[in-house]
Design a protein that fits this description.
The chain is of the alpha/beta class. It has two domains: 177 residues, Medium-chain alcohol dehydrogenases, catalytic domain (Quinone Oxidoreductase, Chain A, domain 1); 138 residues, Medium-chain alcohol dehydrogenases, catalytic domain (Quinone Oxidoreductase, Chain A, domain 1). It has eleven helices and 18 strands. Strands 3, 5, 6, 9, 10, 17 and 18 form a seven-stranded mixed β-sheet that branches. Strands 13-12-11-14-15-16 form a six-stranded parallel β-sheet, sandwiched between helices. A hairpin with an 8-residue loop joins strand 1 and strand 2. Helix 4 crosses helix 5 and helix 4 packs across helix 10. The longest helix is centred in the middle third of the chain and has 14 residues. The chain is globular, with a radius of gyration of 20 Å. 49% of the residues are buried.
Length: 348
């Protein structure tokens, strides 16, 4: 079975077509013929190698997928062959104390498709039945493959971990990539007053079109903490959504309101930061981490997607033969939304 991935860690020059055995569904599992897969910034980290995360080689990239069920294992009752589906890329064991408490993203054996397991940019994909969801009929394969990871991440970070309340101010730091467009929509749907800050004016404009109240363009003289402090009339921001890490977190803390929350969902621009604790305790603010979602949270955001409250944002779509070019697109500073790869069977 062919997939898009790598045989050795490194840079983009390592990306190419690899061969893996075709998977067979076991008890409680479903096999999907992939019609579309999409990539995340996570794929770049997996390619480079993540310290402490063993990755089986050759490795297939991709954490999101949509396709047609072609086989099911013993005990599967909800999903049938021929069903058009999308997948939840978060995998949990269902047995640990966190899973039993409905906090699956805290599972001691939690895995993300394409990071801890083989990925989705391939011909056939096997997952537990609980990870399989119907594809909304009005969606294309690309839309179905673009939605899951970024929206479940934004939903948990803003609603559960960030405890966003209607009327609060929300700052999304950075407007590019794939998760920021999802975060803008989720924050707006939850009643937040959304402001986006970014170095790129064109991306700020696109984020505002998705529902942000305003957009602010940073400069060396006016970094985002100063812009947010001015915009909020020196009150500060109630909730800040930050995926950049070291490059932005210290300034995000300085932009928090009293009782404000900074939720960090990634560290794409560095993982080690120095924090002025005086700002946190004097403003009674907090720094929180979030990743992926619980099963119930995924179901919540999935329902909003099906209703049309939230919309997948696609940067670009690529044919199966253009897989290497699709992964290269992830490194472009112009990326806004998900990079989607058509499966080997295309849209047939």
């Amino acid at each position: 079975m062919k997939g898009l991935g790598f045989n050795a860690h490194g840079g983009l020059d390592q990306v190419g077509w690899v061969e893996r055995p075709a998977p067979e569904p076991g008890a409680g599992e479903v096999r999907v013929q992939v019609r579309a897969a999409s990539f995340n910034r996570l794929d770049r980290f997996v390619l480079a190698g993540i310290p402490g995360v063993p990755i089986e080689l050759p490795h297939i990239l991709g954490s999101d997928a949509a396709g047609v069920v072609d086989a099911v294992g013993p005990g599967v009752s909800r999903v049938v062959p021929g069903a058009e589906v999308l997948v939840n890329p978060g995998i949990w064991d269902g047995t640990c104390e966190y899973c039993r408490a409905g906090q699956e993203s805290l599972c001691r054996n939690y895995q993300i498709l394409g990071e801890h397991t083989q990925g989705s940019a391939t011909e056939l994909l096997v997952l537990p039945e609980r990870n399989i969801h119907p594809k909304p009929p009005i969606w294309s394969w690309s839309q179905a493959a673009a939605a899951p990871l970024v929206f479940e991440t934004a939903w948990r970070a803003l609603k559960t971990v960030g405890a966003l309340q209607a009327g609060e101010t929300v700052a999304v730091v950075g407007a590019g990539g794939a998760v920021a467009p999802a975060a803008v929509q989720v924050a707006r749907s939850l009643g937040g007053r959304v402001v986006v800050v970014s170095r790129e004016a064109s991306k700020v404009e696109r984020a505002v079109a998705l529902g942000a109240e305003t957009g602010l363009v940073t400069t060396p003289e006016k970094p985002h903490d100063k812009l947010l402090w001015e915009w909020s009339q020196k009150r500060g921001i109630d909730l800040i959504f930050d995926s950049s890490g070291a490059a932005t977190v210290p300034r995000s803390i300085r932009a928090l309101a009293r009782g404000g929350r900074l939720v960090v969902i990634g560290a794409s621009e560095g993982s080690q930061v120095e924090v002025d604790l005086r700002t946190l305790f004097w403003r009674q603010a907090s720094l929180r981490g979030s990743t992926m979602s619980s099963r119930a949270e995924f179901d919540e955001v999935y329902r909003e997607l099906v209703r049309g409250t939230l919309h997948p944002v696609i940067d670009s779509e690529w044919k199966w033969a253009q897989g290497v070019e699709a992964v290269r697109r992830l490194t472009s500073p112009e990326v806004f939304g998900k990079v989607v790869l058509e499966g080997p069977r295309g849209g047939a």
